[in-house]
Design brief:
245 residues, alpha/beta, Rossmann fold, 5-stranded mixed β-sheet, 3-stranded antiparallel β-sheet
């Protein structure tokens, strides 16, 4: 039977393609490119997700999202879903997929077992090759639990979803604001440096948020007067920010 590997993003998909090539497996990889760990999810349509991402200065193609879900809905191959439970974006991806697939049978590769602090996109190619052997069918109860959790998260429709010791949970819009402010200073710092420092400090023990979502919060902090900006804060490569006096 043909196999379709489903990856949480282009970076993970590229690594999987190389791993399959090295393993001499003629199997296809499909990548998902919507970070469901941030932004509204109650809507559940590609048009509305694409519109929201455009609002936060990082447009994604609505056609690409539609094509992904259509490919999943019509797939005749055996599906293998890759994800890491310690990455908010990858866990959200898995839960959304579980909800969509319902009681359809599929396999999973949960990289958390061997890479507890990582994401599929961060696993070296040679490790991905070895993880091909860890593919297993998802149990009916696992699938039900995952789908029900995603339905609860959709009902809450919070701005962020974060990894906790109990799994994925909703978080308020200001959840990462304190971390951004902690990385700022009284002197001028490049906005990109502040974002990258915040990312580095938000990756222990879980990978919680992406740079685009943090940039949107940095801009909000500037608008609220919590940060001062020298330049356009959306242009984090040229803009400088600092704490007020």
């Amino acid at each position: 039977m043909k196999v379709l590997h489903v990856a949480p993003g282009d970076a993970a998909g590229g690594g999987l393609k190389e791993a399959l090539r090295l393993a001499r497996h003629r199997q296809e990889v499909l990548s998902f490119n919507d970070d469901l760990s941030c932004g509204p999810i109650a809507w559940g349509t590609s048009h509305e997700r694409a519109a929201w991402w455009s609002h936060v200065h990082a447009p994604i193609a609505e056609d690409d999202l539609e094509a992904f879900w259509h490919r999943i809905d019509t797939a005749g191959e055996r599906l293998v879903v890759w994800f890491g439970r310690h990455s908010a974006s990858e866990l959200a991806f898995f839960l959304a997929l579980a909800d969509r697939l319902g009681d359809r049978p599929y396999d999973i590769v949960d990289i958390t077992v061997s890479q507890p602090a990582g994401a599929v996109a961060m696993v070296p190619t040679h490790r991905l090759v070895s993880l091909l052997e860890s593919t297993r069918p998802i149990s009916p109860q696992e699938a039900v639990d995952a789908g029900q959790l995603w339905q609860r998260l959709r009902a809450q429709n919070a701005p962020f979803r974060i990894v906790t010791s109990a799994g994925l949970a909703s978080a308020p819009i200001e959840h990462f604001d304190a971390s951004i402010l902690e990385q700022a200073a009284k002197g001028w710092l490049n906005a990109a440096y502040v974002i990258e420092s915040t990312l580095a400090h938000s990756r222990e023990p879980y990978i919680q948020v992406g740079g685009i979502a943090l940039l949107a919060r940095l801009v909000a902090l500037v608008e609220e007067g919590e940060l001062l900006a020298d330049g356009n804060p959306w242009d984090m490569r040229t803009c400088r920010v600092r704490l007020p006096d």
